[in-house]
Amino acid sequence: MKRSDMEYLSSVRNYILAVVVVFIVSMIIGTIVSLNNPGLAESYLNNFEKSFSWIKSLSPAAILLVIFLNNASKSLMALLLGLGFGIIPILFVAGNGIILSMLAEVVSRHQGVLFVIAAILPHGIIEIPMILISAGIGLRLGHVVYLSARGAKAGVRSELKKGIFFYIKWVVPLLFVAAFIETFVTTLILYWLFPDLIMGM
To answer: Are 98 and 30 in contact (CB under 8 A)?
Structure first.
Protein backbone atom coordinates (compact mmCIF):
# COMPACT_ATOMS: atom_id res chain seq x y z
CA MET A 1 0.00 0.00 0.00
CA LYS A 2 1.39 3.38 -1.04
CA ARG A 3 2.06 6.11 1.47
CA SER A 4 -0.78 8.24 0.09
CA ASP A 5 -3.21 5.37 0.57
CA MET A 6 -1.96 4.81 4.12
CA GLU A 7 -2.38 8.52 4.84
CA TYR A 8 -5.94 8.47 3.53
CA LEU A 9 -6.77 5.36 5.55
CA SER A 10 -5.32 7.08 8.61
CA SER A 11 -7.51 10.14 7.97
CA VAL A 12 -10.67 8.01 8.14
CA ARG A 13 -9.40 5.80 10.97
CA ASN A 14 -11.70 7.22 13.64
CA TYR A 15 -14.74 6.79 11.40
CA ILE A 16 -13.81 3.18 10.68
CA LEU A 17 -13.36 2.56 14.40
CA ALA A 18 -16.79 4.07 15.06
CA VAL A 19 -18.29 1.74 12.47
CA VAL A 20 -16.48 -1.25 13.98
CA VAL A 21 -17.94 -0.40 17.40
CA VAL A 22 -21.43 -0.19 15.89
CA PHE A 23 -20.87 -3.55 14.19
CA ILE A 24 -19.69 -5.26 17.40
CA VAL A 25 -22.53 -3.81 19.47
CA SER A 26 -25.09 -4.80 16.84
CA MET A 27 -23.72 -8.35 16.79
CA ILE A 28 -24.06 -8.56 20.55
CA ILE A 29 -27.64 -7.30 20.28
CA GLY A 30 -28.40 -9.78 17.50
CA THR A 31 -27.01 -12.67 19.53
CA ILE A 32 -29.07 -11.68 22.57
CA VAL A 33 -32.21 -11.34 20.44
CA SER A 34 -31.59 -14.75 18.87
CA LEU A 35 -31.03 -16.43 22.24
CA ASN A 36 -34.19 -14.90 23.71
CA ASN A 37 -36.28 -15.40 20.56
CA PRO A 38 -35.09 -18.64 18.90
CA GLY A 39 -38.22 -18.80 16.76
CA LEU A 40 -37.47 -15.40 15.24
CA ALA A 41 -33.91 -16.44 14.44
CA GLU A 42 -35.14 -19.67 12.85
CA SER A 43 -37.55 -17.62 10.73
CA TYR A 44 -34.71 -15.37 9.53
CA LEU A 45 -32.62 -18.42 8.65
CA ASN A 46 -35.47 -20.04 6.71
CA ASN A 47 -36.16 -16.83 4.80
CA PHE A 48 -32.45 -16.42 4.08
CA GLU A 49 -32.17 -19.97 2.73
CA LYS A 50 -35.27 -19.53 0.53
CA SER A 51 -34.06 -16.16 -0.80
CA PHE A 52 -30.69 -17.54 -1.89
CA SER A 53 -31.57 -21.14 -2.76
CA TRP A 54 -31.39 -20.30 -6.48
CA ILE A 55 -27.65 -19.70 -6.18
CA LYS A 56 -27.04 -23.44 -5.69
CA SER A 57 -28.05 -24.08 -9.31
CA LEU A 58 -25.39 -21.72 -10.69
CA SER A 59 -21.90 -22.60 -11.84
CA PRO A 60 -19.01 -21.77 -9.47
CA ALA A 61 -17.97 -18.85 -11.70
CA ALA A 62 -21.49 -17.45 -11.63
CA ILE A 63 -21.68 -17.87 -7.85
CA LEU A 64 -18.40 -15.99 -7.51
CA LEU A 65 -19.77 -13.18 -9.66
CA VAL A 66 -23.04 -12.96 -7.72
CA ILE A 67 -21.23 -12.81 -4.36
CA PHE A 68 -18.75 -10.23 -5.61
CA LEU A 69 -21.35 -7.94 -7.20
CA ASN A 70 -23.60 -8.17 -4.14
CA ASN A 71 -20.83 -7.18 -1.74
CA ALA A 72 -19.30 -4.58 -4.04
CA SER A 73 -22.63 -2.85 -4.74
CA LYS A 74 -23.66 -2.80 -1.07
CA SER A 75 -20.26 -1.46 -0.03
CA LEU A 76 -20.46 1.25 -2.68
CA MET A 77 -23.95 2.23 -1.55
CA ALA A 78 -22.79 2.41 2.07
CA LEU A 79 -20.02 4.73 0.93
CA LEU A 80 -22.01 6.98 -1.39
CA LEU A 81 -25.16 7.21 0.74
CA GLY A 82 -22.97 8.40 3.57
CA LEU A 83 -23.34 11.80 1.92
CA GLY A 84 -26.70 11.95 3.72
CA PHE A 85 -24.97 12.98 6.97
CA GLY A 86 -23.59 9.47 7.52
CA ILE A 87 -26.89 7.96 8.61
CA ILE A 88 -27.13 5.14 6.02
CA PRO A 89 -23.68 3.63 6.70
CA ILE A 90 -24.50 3.34 10.41
CA LEU A 91 -27.89 1.75 9.72
CA PHE A 92 -26.32 -0.55 7.10
CA VAL A 93 -23.62 -1.81 9.49
CA ALA A 94 -26.01 -2.15 12.43
CA GLY A 95 -28.56 -4.06 10.37
CA ASN A 96 -25.99 -6.42 8.91
CA GLY A 97 -24.40 -7.00 12.31
CA ILE A 98 -27.72 -7.96 13.87
CA ILE A 99 -28.73 -10.26 11.01
CA LEU A 100 -25.29 -11.91 10.74
CA SER A 101 -25.12 -12.61 14.47
CA MET A 102 -28.68 -13.99 14.54
CA LEU A 103 -27.93 -16.33 11.65
CA ALA A 104 -24.59 -17.36 13.17
CA GLU A 105 -26.22 -18.11 16.52
CA VAL A 106 -29.01 -20.26 15.11
CA VAL A 107 -26.66 -22.14 12.75
CA SER A 108 -24.20 -22.79 15.59
CA ARG A 109 -27.10 -24.18 17.59
CA HIS A 110 -27.74 -26.79 14.87
CA GLN A 111 -24.32 -27.37 13.32
CA GLY A 112 -21.89 -26.23 16.00
CA VAL A 113 -19.56 -23.28 16.48
CA LEU A 114 -16.79 -24.84 14.38
CA PHE A 115 -19.11 -24.97 11.37
CA VAL A 116 -19.92 -21.26 11.70
CA ILE A 117 -16.24 -20.36 12.03
CA ALA A 118 -15.30 -22.47 9.00
CA ALA A 119 -18.16 -20.98 6.97
CA ILE A 120 -17.32 -17.34 7.74
CA LEU A 121 -13.66 -16.90 8.70
CA PRO A 122 -11.80 -17.83 5.46
CA HIS A 123 -13.44 -15.12 3.35
CA GLY A 124 -14.91 -13.01 6.14
CA ILE A 125 -11.47 -11.99 7.36
CA ILE A 126 -11.17 -9.97 4.13
CA GLU A 127 -14.80 -9.28 3.25
CA ILE A 128 -15.99 -7.84 6.56
CA PRO A 129 -13.11 -5.32 6.96
CA MET A 130 -13.62 -4.10 3.39
CA ILE A 131 -17.33 -3.54 4.00
CA LEU A 132 -16.61 -1.76 7.29
CA ILE A 133 -13.97 0.42 5.66
CA SER A 134 -16.48 1.41 2.96
CA ALA A 135 -19.03 2.31 5.63
CA GLY A 136 -16.34 4.22 7.55
CA ILE A 137 -15.57 6.26 4.43
CA GLY A 138 -19.30 6.89 4.06
CA LEU A 139 -19.47 8.10 7.65
CA ARG A 140 -16.53 10.42 6.98
CA LEU A 141 -18.32 11.82 3.93
CA GLY A 142 -21.41 12.40 6.03
CA HIS A 143 -19.39 14.34 8.58
CA VAL A 144 -17.82 16.45 5.84
CA VAL A 145 -21.27 17.20 4.42
CA TYR A 146 -22.42 18.20 7.91
CA LEU A 147 -19.44 20.54 8.33
CA SER A 148 -20.09 22.01 4.89
CA ALA A 149 -23.77 22.59 5.74
CA ARG A 150 -22.63 24.56 8.77
CA GLY A 151 -20.54 26.84 6.59
CA ALA A 152 -17.12 25.25 6.95
CA LYS A 153 -14.85 24.80 3.94
CA ALA A 154 -14.91 21.02 4.16
CA GLY A 155 -14.23 20.02 0.52
CA VAL A 156 -17.04 17.52 -0.05
CA ARG A 157 -16.17 16.91 -3.70
CA SER A 158 -12.49 16.30 -2.94
CA GLU A 159 -13.36 13.94 -0.08
CA LEU A 160 -15.78 12.03 -2.30
CA LYS A 161 -13.15 11.62 -5.01
CA LYS A 162 -10.60 10.29 -2.52
CA GLY A 163 -13.14 7.87 -1.08
CA ILE A 164 -14.18 6.49 -4.46
CA PHE A 165 -10.55 6.21 -5.57
CA PHE A 166 -9.69 4.16 -2.47
CA TYR A 167 -12.79 2.02 -2.97
CA ILE A 168 -11.87 1.22 -6.58
CA LYS A 169 -8.19 0.66 -5.87
CA TRP A 170 -8.45 -1.45 -2.72
CA VAL A 171 -11.97 -2.42 -1.71
CA VAL A 172 -13.14 -3.77 -5.06
CA PRO A 173 -10.12 -6.04 -5.72
CA LEU A 174 -10.13 -7.39 -2.16
CA LEU A 175 -13.87 -8.05 -2.27
CA PHE A 176 -13.22 -10.07 -5.44
CA VAL A 177 -10.53 -12.05 -3.60
CA ALA A 178 -12.99 -12.63 -0.74
CA ALA A 179 -15.66 -13.81 -3.20
CA PHE A 180 -13.16 -16.21 -4.79
CA ILE A 181 -12.24 -17.62 -1.39
CA GLU A 182 -15.90 -17.95 -0.39
CA THR A 183 -16.76 -19.77 -3.61
CA PHE A 184 -13.85 -22.17 -3.76
CA VAL A 185 -11.79 -22.25 -0.54
CA THR A 186 -14.55 -21.95 2.07
CA THR A 187 -16.57 -24.61 0.28
CA LEU A 188 -13.62 -26.99 0.22
CA ILE A 189 -12.96 -26.43 3.91
CA LEU A 190 -16.59 -27.19 4.75
CA TYR A 191 -16.53 -30.35 2.58
CA TRP A 192 -13.33 -31.43 4.31
CA LEU A 193 -14.56 -30.78 7.86
CA PHE A 194 -18.25 -31.66 7.44
CA PRO A 195 -18.58 -33.98 4.40
CA ASP A 196 -21.79 -35.68 5.52
CA LEU A 197 -23.45 -32.42 6.49
CA ILE A 198 -22.56 -30.62 3.25
CA MET A 199 -23.57 -33.54 1.05
CA GLY A 200 -26.95 -33.56 2.77
CA MET A 201 -27.64 -29.90 2.01
So the answer is: yes
